[in-house]
Structure formats: C-alpha cells, structure tokens
Amino acid sequence: MVRDLSFYKSALSEEIRAEGRAQGRAEAVVLVLGQRGIDVPDESRRRITDCHYPEIQRRWLTRAVTAASLEEVFASE
User: CA 32 to CA 7: how far, in whole Å?
Assistant: First the structure.
C-alpha cells in the first residue's frame, strides 16, 4: 500500500511547523526569564508570544540568559 506523504512536504505543513517553532522559542524566552526571577507582565508576555520573527526571538532568548531586567531583553527592538 502506497501512502500519499505529499502533505508533509507542502507549504501548509511547513507553515504549521514554523508556527510550532515560533511558539517553542517564545515559551523558552518566558521560561528562562521566569527561572531567573525576572517578572514577565502580561503585556510583555504577549509581545513575546505574538512575535513570529525567528531572528528576534533568538536574540531575545540569548539576552534572556544574561539580562538583569526585561528591558535589557527588549533593548534596541
């Protein structure tokens, strides 16, 4: 029996995977900040979760590891 696997290579499938990766990065930023004791108010949490630009999310995650404040994470954005 041959199965049609074309969906897994489709543009829609890639879009779904990209959304999942973006959601995972956003959750990671919030998790790292929370574990470091940095409060993430609802407005900032929305800003993080609503962002779908991988390069910005990676920059925020990198900064979240060492930032002393939420403002440092969002610096120059």
Answer: 34
Q: Which residues of 8-47 are buried (b: 16+ CB within 10 A; e: fewer)?
A: eeeeeeeeeeeeeebeebbebbbebbeeeebebeeebeeb
Tokens of 5: 């696997």
Confidence of residue 7 (pLDDT cuts 50, 70, 90): low
Radius of gyration of the chain (CA): 16
Measured between alpha carbons, how far is 60 from 67 in angstroms, rounded to an integer?
Answer: 10
